[in-house]
Amino acid sequence: MVLLGRGIRHSLSPRMWEGIFAELSLSGSYALRDVDKTALDAAIADLRAGRVTHFHVTMPYKRWAFGVADTYDDSTVGVTQVANSLSLKGDQIMGSNTDVKAARILFSELPAPPQRVLVIGAGATAASLVCAANEVASTVLITNRTDDRSRALADRDWSVRTVPVLWSDRERHAAGADLIINTAPFGLTVDATPLARWPEGALLYDLIYSPELTPLQRLASRAGVRAVDGLAHLQAHAEATLAARTIAAPTIERMTAIVTTAAGRAPTRWGLLNGGQKSLP
Fold first, then answer.
1. Do 90 and 161 reside in the same domain of the chain?
2. Is 194 within the bounds of a domain?
3. Which of 102, 178, 222, 228 could lock onto 236 through a cystine, CB 3.0 to 4.6 A?
4. Order of strands, edge to edge, in the sheet holding 226-228?
5. Looking at residues 268-274, what average pLDDT do you find?
6. Quick one: 107 and 219 in the same domain?
7. Are 11 and 43 within one domain?
8. Model confidence at 189, in pLDDT bands (50, 70, 90)?
9. Strand order, beta sheet including 92-96
10. Domain with 53 in it: what CATH number?
11. What's residue 277's pLDDT?
């Protein structure tokens, strides 16, 4: 396996996958290919020639991966216009969206599906989480610092009511949500929180992972919020990848131990952000 992206030298994926391969007694390797767009044709040539069996694709190439795939393993790939996994099936490149599949896994662990979801961000990852939220919620709201991008994402052919929210109006709409999904780089490239106060009763699904809690995660932590963090999403992403290849994954407990070893801290999977993993009541 190879992770294809730009600015990915910090990625935890190689350490995590090495642990998974060892746990399952599989012979395999996981490499990083940190390249600019001029090297993408060579990556596809390597896939077609069998020199690479599977690409995981991260930013900024998820939309490019959708475009180069010949076929898709799930209809949601066409709706999101995003693929973050490429493999060769016969003579065709198969595109898959494992962000959607990871979110499905994590949503299935909730005692009840969220009904009103606010998604922060409007990029490729946001499209995937909007898609997954459409499968469980009755209303999905999208807000982004650029309002036109929120409108463009909301205007796609979604299965449930999907509404753009002005960035200036996000706090009011967050107050009525029972799940907040953050896909924007708050706490990474933006040292701020998109919300000034945590909406009562809302859960958090934050795709950002960093060594320390981000400002948004600290806000949720002070409110005692149950949450999924970026490490838990990364773990579920791996579980979805193994399932797609019909490989039985290690138990959640063993997968959590593998991710903890790779990251130096435990993922939060519907637990308390400052207290490790605790199950929902």
1. no
2. yes
3. 102
4. 161-165, 139-143, 116-120, 179-182, 203-206, 226-228, 269-272
5. 90
6. yes
7. yes
8. low
9. 31-34, 2-5, 54-57, 85-89, 92-96, 71-72
10. 3.40.50.10860
11. 41
- Whether residues 119 and 152 fall in one domain: yes
What is d(CA 249, CA 265) in angstroms, rounded to the nearest whole number? 21
CATH of residue 169's domain is 3.40.50.720
Query: What's this model's pTM, rounded to 2 decimal places?
Result: 0.92
Q: What total number of domains does the chain contain? A: 2
Instruction: Answer whether 250's CB lies under 8 Å from 21's CB.
Output: no
Structural domain that includes position 184 = 101-232+266-272
| Arithmetic mean of pLDDT, 226-253 | 91
Distance of CA 152 to the CA centre of its chain: 20
Taking each helix axis from N to C terminus, what angle separates 147-154 and 124-134, rounded to the nearest 10 degrees? 40
Are 91 and 165 in the same domain? no
